[in-house]
Write a structure and sequence with these properties.
Blueprint (H helix, E strand, L loop, with lengths): L1 H26 L7 H43 L4 E6 L4 E4 L1 H6 L21 H14 L3 E8 L5 E10 L5 E8 L1 H22 L5 E5 L1 H12 L5 H7 L2 H8 L2 E5 L1 H6 L5 H6 L10 H12 L4 E9 L5 E9 L4 E8 L1 H63 L4
Antiparallel strand pairs: 1-2, 1-5, 3-4, 4-5, 6-7, 6-10, 8-9, 9-10
Helix pairs in contact: 1-2
């Protein structure tokens, strides 16, 4: 097929050369050479023109090839990825600027240097195994290394390499994973701290997945339903369905203790059993808050242990997105104390009222007695005055 294409190309080239020669001859004067000489001259001139055209095509092809080569070199040299070419014994044969940058040296100073001198002692066997596999399998191989550059900084890198057939060089792409590994480490530490705070919190905590609840409420909004309370009142059978959409992800030790569960797993599976008929209005209010776009909800709620013991809890949930943290602080004792205090106040007020009435009655009696007593004293004084007056008239001297 290639020979046919080549032959066709030669015919086209010869044809173009003849056409060009005809134009040139038309401009020249006719020379009186024999016919055979003219034919030979014609063929030579055509061949000369054809060679000239082929030369121009070769020059253009070389220019395009050089242009493509330069573009490839620019892409290779300034690529954001790190490229290396390694020999079977790990000698750097070629690398781009980014690869040289991570090794903290000029690119020219890294050519023909062993890449292994930058690999940490702990991961050097991993690198050697990577090279052996790559050259022996001719398949893509990967490994994770730790690099120790000349300023003692540590870099974590991921290598992907492949050796072409019948090649003694391994083409390697190197990715700096230092930041991602550090981020992953910090994330693990953060998750560990969070879990420790969650697990050891003195307040009973629940970690819940509300994703299905959020989707269901969004669907209701899209159908024009915004009053969830009225909707569930009109469709009471859907209330339990909504409650079952909640998924318990975790509970802490205080929650297990409060609801008297034998284990974490049992409480997570039996969360519906802590609900009572008095929980329903609070649950509906929480759904209403979600539909209103609030991410914090707080309310007193009546719950029960798995042994059916009633609890009064201060429930508060908060969360961004579909993951929600719910606290159920037991305030049963506080509410009982408040109730007893209210009863005491009522009894105290009744006692005070009765005592006040009693004192009022006694005060009235005292006032009446005082009036009688004062009247008696006044009467005695009058009698004494009359006795004295009579004695003076009768001349009785005491």
């Amino acid at each position: 097929m290639k020979e046919d294409n080549k032959s066709l190309g030669q015919k086209n080239s010869w044809q173009k050369a003849e056409e060009l020669l005809v134009e040139i001859k038309a401009k020249k004067q006719h020379l009186g050479f024999p016919k055979t000489t003219k034919k030979l001259i014609h063929e030579l001139e055509v061949h000369q023109i054809e060679l000239k055209m082929q030369n121009e095509e070769l020059v253009q092809a070389r220019f395009e090839a050089q242009k493509a080569s330069n573009k490839y070199e620019e892409l290779y040299d300034f690529a954001p990825s790190m490229y290396l070419t390694l020999s079977r014994d790990g000698i750097i044969k070629e690398l781009n600027f980014n690869a040289a940058r991570i090794l903290r040296k000029e690119r020219a100073n890294l050519i023909n240097i062993r890449f292994g001198i930058y690999v940490s002692l702990a991961t050097r066997p991993v690198f050697e195994q990577f090279l052996n596999k790559a050259f022996n399998s001719n398949a893509k191989e990967t490994c994770v290394l730790v690099l120790e550059v000349n300023d003692s900084s540590i870099k974590n890198v991921h290598l992907s390499g492949i050796v072409k057939e019948d090649s003694e060089q391994c083409l390697v792409i190197m990715i700096d994973t230092t930041e991602s590994i550090q981020s992953a480490k910090e994330l693990r530490e953060s998750e560990s701290r969070y879990h420790s705070l969650f697990e050891n919190s003195p307040i009973p905590l629940w970690e819940m997945d509300y994703s299905r609840i959020f989707r269901k409420l969004a669907d209701l909004k899209n159908t024009g339903t915004f009053d969830i309370a009225k909707y569930l009142t009109d469709n009471p059978q859907k209330l339990i369905r909504y409650a079952l959409l909640i998924k318990v992800l975790d509970v802490n030790k205080e929650a297990i203790k409060l609801f008297k569960a034998e284990s974490r797993e049992i409480l997570m599976k039996s969360y519906m059993e802590i609900f009572t008929e008095l929980t329903v209005p609070v649950f509906i209010d929480s759904l209403k808050s979600i539909m209103e776009g609030k991410n914090i909800f707080e309310s007193e709620v009546i719950l029960q242990t798995l042994q059916k013991e009633r609890l009064v809890c201060l429930s508060k949930w908060s969360g961004e997105g579909t993951q929600v943290i719910i606290s159920t602080q037991n305030i049963t004792a506080r509410k009982q104390a408040e109730k007893e205090l209210d009863n005491y106040r009522e009894n105290l007020e009744s006692t005070i009222e009765a005592r006040t009435k009693e004192l009022g009655d006694r005060n009235t009696e005292l006032q009446n007695f005082n009036r009688v007593f004062v009247g008696r004293e006044f009467r005695i004084k009058e009698l004494r005055d009359k006795v004295k007056e009579l004695e003076e008239k009768l001349g009785i001297v005491r």
